[in-house]
Amino acid sequence: MRYEIFFTTSICVLVFAGCTESPFQQKVDNPQGSQIRGQIALNDLASPEGAYVWLEGANVSTYTDQNGRFELTLPQSSQNGVNGVFDLYIYLANYKFATAQTVVQDGKFLFAQADVNARGELSGTLTIQKILDISTAVTPSAVPKDFAGPILVAVTLHAVLDSVDVVFPKMVGGLLGAVLFKKAETGEVFVDVPDVSARTRFRDKVGNEPRAWVQTVFLGRGGISSSGVYEVIPYFFIEQKELPPELISSLGVDVNEVQSVEAEFAGIPAKRAGGRLIVTD
Q1: d(Cα 176, Cα 168) in Å, to the nearest integer?
Q2: pLDDT, tens digit, 9 for 90 and up, residues 114-127
Q3: Whose CB among 143, 168, 186, 230 lies 3.0–4.6 Å from 181's, allowing a Cys bridge?
């Protein structure tokens, strides 16, 4: 989830932006393909489904399936004279991101090079490690759609190993600055912002002792008017230094936005516990 992102890369870059010097002294005669495959796992044995897989430079992406597998394909438009060594990122907001190196020659992946084997697969399973536990409680957890009372949302954070920096945009008085509701059936996102005029960005460091933040929300204020099951998502960003800002922006999120809360924030992948609201007729 956010990321005050200081972009560093150890990779030899590219030609997408108009660089004319090839990183190769000569062409390498290896098997090539427009697609590579791989598999990831989570160190806490949680489901690996839904991790974001993003290729630096080419800005192409996909998600892992329920088994942690993925296939990433270079578009036809990139297959003219594109050469370089690119990092492939595996990302979940509350896990430490992982990378693998790929080599692209003439717009296709070069197999049997860097971290890609001769079959066009990543060499071995990439395991990413959880850095922050996120648990959300909603009280009451079920209400009718015309419910006019308050709903209390509390998020508890706990760093798994080292402390983790988090940022809460639009926070006022120590309360959550916003809460999002994502409808399971349709993917629609509704946003509740208690103070729309707030332009604050509160930064905190979460350690091994659990910390909790709360907010009182109202269905009408967030725009919810239909029954269904909603995922309740507290609005805050997790800072991971060295994470390219282009990765987050590829998800449609502006991490520096303070004037409004973007519904696209709900699309940042993370593994959370709890956080379900049932709205009935």
Answers
A1: 7
A2: 999 999 999 999 99
A3: 230
